[in-house]
Write a structure and sequence with these properties.
five-stranded parallel sheet
Length: 330
């Protein structure tokens, strides 16, 4: 009898196992392609009621504009309700409430939590204690997997493939969680990465070791000029993140090292596109906006479709269900 009860409990645990979206390193090539296809479906029809009756919580312990608004817009356009906060100063955390208690409390009210936190590993910790799915909306300088999915979707959209591309990562490669996530995701697609950064902001050794262990080709540069970028399929610019620096003098030394200007683009490939996770400060000159290579605004728009796909996937809604969905609002 005890054994039967134990087996029933095991079966129930398997059936009820929740999905999280915490690290891009967990995603297979098949899963990435699956989420890209789902994002394509949402780009065709972003307004639906497929999540009617669901509640999405957005807990942002660190400032955000695009990520928070695109998660909330994704939830709203799919018919869900949104709760949460964009300023931790107005939460019970100011009274000493722990992250654990905040997560468990919000889990009483929501079906899924999208969380940004300034501490590396916070999303993983939340996923281990929460009874509902956790989506990592950025944890310190560690990872930003939902941004990575919209980056992958944008690269596929502009290049028609994810395979065999020359991808230039430029700027803050030390603290840039978006570039760290992109390296891990692209391991399936035989890229050649070019790491363009000053020594103070070079790609951390752990990610270069990761590249070597996974057969990812990479070249390091400290120069950034027309000749260096001539073979690029994607130039992925990043902001030097003032908030990550404890030494402001160091920030001042490196903040303007690499600025992409329109006159540097004369010899680039026709298919080349410039991406940026935004916000930009001055690393992309405004004259670049008028060139056919600028794609960072469209990239931000793709955040809506990618995050619609992520929310649905962690809630167990399949691609087939999205394709068959009859709640589309034109």
């Amino acid at each position: 009898m005890c054994n039967l009860a134990h087996e029933k409990q095991k079966t129930s645990t398997i059936v009820m196992k929740k999905r999280n979206f915490v690290t891009i390193a967990d995603l297979s090539k098949e899963k990435i392609n699956y989420l890209i296809e789902m994002a394509q479906e949402f780009e065709k029809h972003p307004n639906r009621e497929i999540l009617k009756g669901k509640v999405v919580a957005t807990l942002f312990f660190e400032p955000s504009t695009r990520t928070r608004l695109s998660f909330e817009t994704a939830a709203n356009r799919l018919g869900a309700r949104v709760i949460g906060f964009a300023d931790p100063k107005i939460t019970s955390g100011t009274k000493g409430e722990t992250l654990k208690d905040t997560i468990l409390m919000v889990s009483n009210y929501a079906d899924v939590i999208a969380m940004r936190h300034y501490i590396e590993g916070a999303a993983q910790y939340a996923s281990e204690i929460a009874p509902i799915p956790i989506i990592n909306a950025g944890d310190g300088a560690h990872q930003h997997p939902s941004q990575c999915m919209l980056d992958l979707y944008t690269i596929y959209q502009t290049q028609g493939t994810l395979d065999n591309l020359n991808i230039f990562l430029v700027g803050d490669l030390k603290y840039g969680r978006t570039v760290h996530s992109l390296i891990m995701a692209m391991r399936h697609f035989n890229p050649t990465f070019h790491f363009v950064a000053p020594k103070e902001l070079a790609m951390p050794n752990e990610y270069k070791i990761y590249c070597k262990e996974n057969g990812i080709k990479f070249v390091e540069h400290t120069a950034f000029n027309e000749k260096i970028i001539a073979d690029a399929d994607i130039i992925y610019m990043t902001r030097v993140q003032k908030e990550r620096f404890s030494d402001l003098m160091e920030y001042e030394r490196v903040k303007n090292v690499y600025i992409l200007k329109a006159d540097m683009l004369k010899g680039v490939k026709q298919n080349m596109k410039i991406l940026h996770p935004l916000p930009r400060v001055n690393e992309i000159a405004y004259d670049v906006d008028e060139t056919p290579y600028a794609y960072y605004i469209q990239q931000a728009q793709n955040g809506l479709y990618a995050r619609e796909a992520i929310i649905c996937d962690v809630l167990g809604i399949t691609l087939d269900e999205v394709k068959a969905d009859n709640t589309i609002i034109e």
